[in-house]
Amino acid sequence: MILPNELIEQIIYFLDGDIQTLSVCAVVCHVFNQISTPLLYKRIHVSPPNIEVAWQDTLGRKPFATSRLPSHAGYIEEFTLDGDLTKIRPFRQMSISIIDKIPGALQAWRNLRKVTLKPHQASGTALQNIIKALRTCPSLKSITVNDLVMGEDIVPDLVELCDLEEITLLNPTRDILMALIDWIGRMRSTITALHLLNNCGSLTPGILRKLTPHLCILESLSIGISYSLTDADIFSCLSELPKLKSLQLQYYYQQGSLPPGPTLLSLQSLTVCYDLLIGKYEAVALSTWIRRISSSSPLEHLIVRCYDSRGRTLSFDGLLLHVAHRHRQSLCSIQMPKAHVRTRTLHTLLQICGGLTDLSLNVAFSALKSFPTMATECHNLRTVSFDVCDYQGLTIDKANVQKVLQLVPSLRSFSVNNVQWKREWVPLQTKDGTIVPNFAVTLVRHKE
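RESULT FIELD:
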């Protein structure tokens, strides 16, 4: 049987991102080559090595070399550059010529939409030349840079980029934040996402107040840690963003009363990051803070991440009960792997939120045993991950996973203490030789 090209195309699309397999598909035949090549060159990643790494073995060198050919240049949509951008290796005095070829490649990639520049080291004018070349990219819509691309000699060229839809600044410096006010102002008709991530100590209340009037058109915003910003500063800024749909903030405990929360009538996704919580009072404060932000929103996704795995497990029952009742009609995903909830709270959550599809929580062993019977009516649940706090050495075998999946037929992925099992369709040959689809349970990730 010969498959039509449309089906082959859909099958190969599942390999998007698998460079090794796509490279093999590209040499099978003409049809496979026509479908695989655009995916093979869709993302180009260049990572110049340090002096201990052989340049010839660096992943990404060959795709970059051939991506500049006229026949391939139109396929590139994303470009990532990291590693050590030192033009001369100190001990061998061997030049890395690829750095000088990047500006020309950027000009040739006419459909380039997303660029990420995260060098570990940089010297000379390499970065400045790359930024200048980006100004000639007509399709560029998203850029991500770290603090090495925010020097005072590079910022004037960086802020000349126009018609962007998304800007991500990692560890933003004062130079870029001061220039960001006018930069965002010039792109009010196109910009929809701004992400200030990691260390945002240079983001002061004064800069945030000047920046806020230009952010009213944003649909997605992220703000990293800045101890000079108070809750009042953050909430005041958020109150001026009526179109905001996705929000990521980093929380730190502050003494004093919490100001009134912002009214975010369009917010659908909330991500909160925090460091180690010392005691129950800090967990309560964090829960109250999240409730203030999301109380008026049609929240669909709640993600709470802890950067520090130390410390004892703290309860977030109050927050989960509030979220379950307040957002029962819209909530579909809860990712709080370090937040402990009791069995009764988990039962209430599964009963109330019928549209829940993804769940990640910290529970007791008793809650894990009761979960299959509690979730029998959850017809939309697809992914569940539990961290069992009172049974750290617990591993779940295939037989027990199959029992859970039988009781919760909609479930496709089930994880316990970082051991993940996945249920998927696989072809099964019957005794008469016919092939029928069958559900199989396979181990995806084992405990490290």
